Amino acid sequence: MEEGRLSRGQMTAVVVMRVLVGWHFLYEGLTKLTSEGWSAAGYLRQARGPLAGLFEWMAADAALLERVDLLNMWGLTAIGLGLILGCFTRAASAAGILAILLFYFCNPPFVGYFYSIPTEGSYLVVNKNLVEAAALAVIFVTGSGRVAGLDRILHGLFRGRARLAEA
């Protein structure tokens, strides 16, 4: 194995993780798209923590809330498809990190700050959202879409065009 390169087994594990995280995003997006009347309003209104005012403002403005809902539904779906297919994997993982961190800061798991005991999946400052953001960071830095995904094809096409332009 070359220095600084992942082994086949390591990259396989990253690809499996990418597909599983992608499935989570896709499922959440499709569930919201197919649920009549779904809105992020309730989640945003219960916001706590340092950015609560921002999230409450989003929920209070009907036009803005409609945009937030659409962005949430379609964004989660697109991120999920990108990760599962390995297509624009770095962009999908970066967008996923942004979305997950927004969810994290909407309702952070800061024990003692809001409540005295942790809830399931929230352990002091770490919760499921933070773990998934870390997984997305690994996916972002490994370029797993070029190993198993449509990014391999796209990278080959763009690399071929660059060579033609140089000639």
Largest sheet, described in full? Answer: 2 strands, antiparallel
How many domains make up the coordinates?
Answer: 1
- Oligomer designation: single chain
Molecular shape = globular
> Which segments are poorly predicted (pLDDT under 50) over 5 or more consecutive residues?
none
Element-level helix/strand string = HHHHHEEHH
Let me know the average pLDDT. Answer: 88
Biggest sheet strand order reads 1-2
Distance between the termini: 33 Å
- Rounded Rg: 19 Å
Comma- or semicolon-separated keywords:
single chain, mainly alpha, 7 helices, 69% helix, globular
Write up this protein.
A hairpin with a 2-residue loop joins strand 1 (122-123) and strand 2. This protein has 167 residues and is mainly alpha-helical. It has a two-stranded antiparallel sheet. It has helices at 8-34, 41-45, 52-60, 62-85, 89-106, 128-142, 150-166, and strands at residues 122-123, 126-127. The chain has one domain (8-166). Helix 1 (8-34) runs antiparallel to helix 4 and helix 5 (89-106) runs antiparallel to helix 6 (128-142). The model has no long low-confidence stretch (mean pLDDT 88). It has 7 helices and 2 strands, in the order H-H-H-H-H-E-E-H-H.
